[in-house]
Amino acid sequence: MNATLSGIHHVTAITSDVQQNIDFYCGVLGLRLVKLTVNFDDPSSYHLYYGDELGRPGTVMTFFAWAGARRGAIGPPQVTTTAFAVPVDAINYWSSRLKQFGVSNDAPIERFSEPVLHITDPDGLGLDIVGVEKPGGQPWTAGPVPVEHAIQGFHGVTISEEGYESTANVLTKLMNFTADGNDGNRFRYRAQGDGFAEIVDFLCVPDGRGGGMGAGVVHHVAFRTPDRPQQDAWHSNIVQAGLNVSPVMDRNYFQSIYFREPGGVLFEIATDGPGFTTDEPAEQLGAKLMLPKTLEQHRAKIESILPAVRLPLSEK
User: Fold this and answer.
1) pLDDT tens per residue, range 36-66
2) Are 247 and 61 in contact (CB under 8 A)?
3) Model pTM?
4) Is residue 219 part of a domain?
5) 81 vs 21, 221, 281, CA distance in Å?
6) Domain span at residue 175?
7) What band does 2 get if pLDDT is binned at 50, 70 and 90?
8) Which domain CATH number covers 301?
9) How many structural domains are present in the chain?
């Protein structure tokens, strides 16, 4: 089978404060909370999913909410920046909006002929807002940000490595990305998709201080494949490439396999479906705690452990 990867599926990071996280990603960035659930491997903590109206692959930023987690160290090998795409004319709007909410940002810089605003979230997670001529995604039309300025999914991720060549070899020879130029020590690779959420940049920092897991750090980046048969093909391809890969794991809203690229960053390959409407209707996404069937019998205990959360007033 000619297995395909069309770009980024989701990015998962760590937050130390669930309410602060919701207020920022919904209230400031204007994303929709599409699923409020728990970490399936640690049901005592929340797993939050943000995205467009339906949480389509390529728009979803997720967080493990580990209360009071120590701040992580930013550095290689790590996904050090996650970039969101907005219409190119929206950059000035975002600069003003971020300042309005007390989020510091400098004047946009230009990278690969696109304007980029760099910010950090309340945990110190690095984020870029990139102005794109044709973002390709779909904004959430009922969110607090006017639709003509709204985030339209991911632009890409930046992975910091001491040396990027071995990982780039995995991207090009295994995952079918293509090299797309460089800007100094930044090397760009592009998935064979439809121009949406398809960019991986490598930042080569041989003298960079090593990173460490914790709040404000990306746990893993997931790439999208259409369905389970193609995911099985990827599993075989990864094994044949000499890399260790996990068995298929059921994440309820998609199926996942995991492996580490040569530098050590955790990669996931996730299926596009079944999606976030598999257990609640579209109009009610993110409105209440959803549990997988295997944990439903423990709901009372889980709810007694989890902190209460509220949706921000700016979310509709």
Assistant:
1) 999 999 999 999 999 999 999 999 999 999 9
2) no
3) 0.97
4) yes
5) 17, 11, 32
6) 8-305
7) confident
8) 3.10.180.10
9) 1
For residue 314, being part of any structural domain is answered with: no
Q: Is residue 136 part of a domain?
A: yes
Q: Dig out the tokens for 152 from the structure.
A: 């339209």
